[in-house]
Amino acid sequence: MKLKADFVTNSSSSSFIVVWPCKIKSETDVSEFIKRHDFQPIIFRDAVKQKPQKLSNSLKKMTKEINSGYVAGVLSHYDHEKVFCKREGITSRELWENRAWQQQCWEECELLSKASAQKMAEEFINQTGDGYVYYFSYGDEDGGIFSALEHENNWGGLPAIRVSHH
User: Fold this and answer.
1) Which pTM value belongs to this model?
2) To 10 degrees, what angle do helices 144-151 and 40-48 make?
3) Buried b (16+ CB within 10 A) or exposed e, 79-97
4) What is the domain range of residue 132?
5) Residue 44 in domain
6) Structural domain tally of the chain?
7) pLDDT tens across 73-87, in order?
């Protein structure tokens, strides 16, 4: 038997796709929407490191970001695995014991999840209208304030998508 003797963590992170009405140039642009004073300098610092895209030009990058983790409403590998097994008349165990089925399931899921992510991005862009897209990523392994940034609804009514990377 092997024992794990070093530090074990159950850390998580989330990324956020957030649309601002203007380019962020000062902390005032952030504080207008972000009400927690301790979050404002962090979000400002992370925003000014970026070259924001116009929302109308962000479909490809947004699709990739949505597809990089879990977003409610986007097909997950777990959901597709259940559909695949039912369609093929096999159990999940049988799937994972057969490399050909694994490959077929994985390839189908990749195509379907990318299409699902693109559809979500298109709908988000169409419903949001105009603005500049910023991408933020926060995880609880970096401490309490970053855990709060990851888990709380911080975006003050700005259009945003949360992508979970648990």
Assistant:
1) 0.84
2) 80
3) ebbeebbeeeebeeeebee
4) 13-72+116-164
5) yes
6) 1
7) 787 778 889 999 999
